[in-house]
Amino acid sequence: MQTGVWISLTIYFAVMLGIGFYAYRTSTGNSEQYILGGRNLPPAVAALSAGASDMSGWLLLGLPGALYVSGLVEAWIGVGLFVGALVNWIVVAPRLREQTERYENALTIPEFLGKRFPTQASALRLVSALIIVVFFAVYTASGLVAGGKLFSTAFDGGYQTGVWLTLGIVLAYTVIGGFLAVCLTDFVQGCIMMLALIIMPVVVLYTGDGGGFAQAGQTLSGVEGFTLSWWNEDMSLIGWLSLMAWGLGYFGQPHIIVRFMAVRSVAEVSTARNYAMSWMAISLIGAIGVGIFGRAYVERSGITLADPETIFILLAETLFPALITGFLFAALLAAIMSTVSSQLLVSSSSLAEDFYRLLVNKKASDSTIVTVGRIAVVAVGAVAALIAGDPDSEVLGLVSNAWAGFGAAFGPLMILALTWQRMTGIGAVAGLVTGALTVIVWIAMGWNSSFLGGPGVYEMIPGFLLAMLAIVVVSLATDAKGEFRAIGSA
User: Fold this and answer.
1) What would the pLDDT profile of 247-304 be if each residue is shown by its tens digit?
2) Which of 419, 422, 443, 338 is nearest to 91 (CA)?
3) What is the 3-class SS of 234-245, one letter each residue?
4) Which residues cross the membrane (predicted)?
5) How far is Cα 246 from Cα 490, in angstroms, rounded to an integer?
């Protein structure tokens, strides 16, 4: 079986590296091409790149694992994400595409903020770039943890070997081909992920004596702590809000919204949105099916699964021939690598444009910035690999912390910066710092696990609300004179 699996994976790796070399030859001549692909992404590529870089190993490991343990009640995370993504495409995408080009062709989110609020340009660029690098180191680590789990579980190999092998492959095509390589590989990876999430639930549901929906429901009805209801006795209003609040994070995820900046034109944003939401709906439903029907299969077969987040890997190994298993593992790697590469590139772009060019060498040439960006990709990846050193780390836990950090720090800031003319630079700094610090403190105090003797509150909620409040209050108390006005596409 191992031979067939490795044949499929080798083909997958070769395709990813081939795309990297293609992008190197066509779109790494200057910093705009390396960082943003020349703002020339077709709608379908931008859409699936945003989706694939968003979902990561969480889609095939974390979400199915949560549903495997508790049942359909955990699917509220998917509902919240779908709603948040749709609003993000409607509100943020067209405005960000138009304004980043109008504000002197801003190439990164920190650069856009600096040009939108020139009175606080340096502070905004430095603080936002610092937050991006710190939280992305944690976020990238979650992807490497997923890679480590895949190799240790599927191939009986070393966890650390899996972490470094995953990182090495991602670094190869990201360093070589830049943004275009990342987006083109995302497109291919997104197609692979969606196809895998269509195939697996159907096979699991009807394989052997599966019996379809009826037998799955009968099997799961007797599983303690598992529910096929959208609500159970342990679900509180706060718990429901915490699950739905995942959707708030979309407005502040730099690796996702940077795709909006690269769409070929503002007019094509709506087409990209339709592609993106269709892909997301299919993929989320498939992931939910993997978790629920996978639990039914495990219970029916009497299998013991030590780590619920490896249910996708177990099903791939158990139910499919070697070549198809290799394809399914490639889908999992695609989910992991598409997000890791996007995060590494956004982090390195901020280090190159918002640290190096701003503080070290203001007259740096485009070729120098590209070189610094490539070095930064390797450096951030190495730090993330060190964070991912613990094989007992939970993918969903790491993702939730980083997702909340970005969502609270940048979410309210991006929404108001793009839509509210009265916002000031000082208000922007206040919101950025308030959101990030609230999330960090909330996690440190353990209030996401238990708050005031009751259930925990997801750190996204207080972080997002307090950041929004800080921006509004400080902006109204300070002068907006000297700031650019947010007059973008509706």
Assistant:
1) 888 898 888 888 899 899 999 999 999 999 999 999 999 999 998 998 888 888 888 8
2) 419
3) CCCHHHHHHHHH
4) 6-24, 75-93, 123-142, 162-184, 191-208, 237-258, 279-298, 318-346, 367-389, 395-418, 425-445, 457-477
5) 25
CA distance 406 to 248: 10
Using CA of residue 374, residue 142, residue 144, residue 82, what is the dihedral sign? negative
Residue 41 and residue 184 in contact, taking contact as beta carbons nearer than 8 Å: no
Statement: residue 241 has pLDDT above 80: yes
Q: Where exactly are the structural domains of the chain? A: 2-397
pLDDT of residue 423: 94
Q: What is the mean pLDDT of residues 387-403?
A: 73
Closest CA to 348 of 203, 199, 146, 140: 140
Model confidence pLDDT, tens digit, residues 417-467? 999 989 999 999 999 999 999 999 999 888 888 887 777 888 889 999 999
Encoded tokens for 229: 């209801």
Band the pLDDT of 489: cuts 50, 70, 90. Answer: very low
Q: What is the assigned CATH class of domain 2-397? A: mainly alpha
Q: CA torsion sign, 147 to 350 to 489 to 259?
A: negative
In the numeric block, the tokens 């238990």 are attached to 450
How many CA atoms does the CB half-sphere of 448 hold within 13 Å? 21
User: SS3 for the chain, per residue?
Assistant: CHHHHHHHHHHHHHHHHHHHHHHHHHCCCCHHHHHHHHHCECHHHHHHHHHHHHHHHHHHHHHHHHHHHHEHHHHHHHHHHHHHHHHHHHHCHHHHHHHHHHCCCCCCHHHHHHHHCHHHHHHHHHHHHHHHHHHHHHHHHHHHHHHHHHHHHHCCCCHHHHHHHHHHHHHHHHHHHHHHHHHHHHHHHHHHHHHHHHHHHHHHHHCCCCCHHHHHHHHHCCCCCCECCCCCCCCCHHHHHHHHHHHHHHHHCHHHHHHHHHECCHHHHHHHHHHHHHHHHHHHHHHHHHHHHHHHHHHHHCCCCCCHHHHHHHHHHHHCCHHHHHHHHHHHHHHHHHHHHHHHHHHHHHHHHHHHHHHHCCCCCHHHHHHHHHHHHHHHHHHHHHHCCCCCCCHHHHHHHHHHHHHHHHHHHHHHHHHCCCCCHHHHHHHHHHHHHHHHHHHHCCCCCEECCEECCCCHHHHHHHHHHHHHHHHHHCCCCCCCCCCCCC
Q: What is the mean pLDDT of residues 221-226?
A: 78
